[in-house]
Every structure is written in structure tokens, then in C-alpha cells.
């Protein structure tokens, strides 16, 4: 939808319109309540500001909506479509990559107790695997900060796809 349309939506409709970008109520409220936006950069700036910082509970809530890297999101809802598009470079028929991702995901989940989250859009499978390996060396606090940053990046990319200039 165009920015002018987003500005004119009722509050509940506007919240639902951008929920596929990031299902964190505080973030949704902040972005919607700052309307009207006079230009797209103002929308993205507000979304970025509202995303800093995310609480651990907010990150946990958001992670519950993200499939593992290498697994295709099911369903026809907008969020699943974003996820499939973001992971489109990961070929499900590449058994070597799929095996390495399965093993990496499992090791990551055992170490950090959550799904591995990365902005996959624009990254090759090798870059994703390199990041997965590098992030395994993080301490939990560092990794929490990295996950929150990746979540912000994903939310902003999705918001750009939902609300156009």
C-alpha cells in the first residue's frame, strides 16, 4: 500500500497492515501512532527508533514467528510469504547446504535456546552458514544484541515492502 493510504487507515487497520513486518505490539503501536508520515524515510526512521531496544520478551515473541533458516514457512499469510522470499537463495534441493543448516541450527538452539535468526535477504547460503558459525562463538549477551539487530533489519525490510513511498 502507498504511504498516503497507510496514513489514512484506522488505527486497528493500520496495526494489522504492518503486523507482518514485526509482531511486537509496542513497536506496532509506536509506528502507527506516529502517523501521519510526510515521507517514507520518516516512517522508516520511526520504525528504526521504535525498535531500539527490543526487550528479551519482545525478541522471544518475534522469534516464535520465524522458521529455522533452511525451512520453508508454511501458509499463505503475508509473513510466510516474506520468509519464503527472504530465504529464496537457500535451495531446498541442495542436500549439502540443507544438512549443514540442520546441524548448525541444532547446535545454535542447544547453545542459545532459540532459533537462529539472520536477515537472509541478499545473503547467499554460504554467507548464512559463515554467520551461523561465527555467531556460535558469541557469549549470550552479545548474541542477544545481534539477534535484536537482525530482527530490526528484517522488520525494516518487510515494512518497506508493505508501505511504499
Main β-sheet: number of strands, strand sense, barrel status?
Answer: none
N- and C-termini, Cα separation: 9 Å
Alpha-carbon Rg, integer: 16 Å
Structural class: mainly alpha
Oligomeric composition of the shown chains: single chain
Q: SSE order, as H and E?
A: HHHHHHHHH
Weakly predicted, low-confidence segments: none
Total of DSSP H or I helical runs spanning 4+ residues: 9
Beta fraction of the residues? under 5%
Q: What is the residue-mean pLDDT, rounded to a whole number?
A: 89
The tally of strands reads 0
Describe it.
This protein is mainly α. It contains 9 helices and no strands. The chain has helices at residues 3-8, 11-18, 25-33, 40-50, 56-63, 78-86, 95-112, 125-135, 140-162. Helix 4 (40-50) runs antiparallel to helix 9 and helix 7 runs parallel beside helix 8 (125-135). The radius of gyration is 16 Å and the shape is globular. The model has no long low-confidence stretch (mean pLDDT 89).
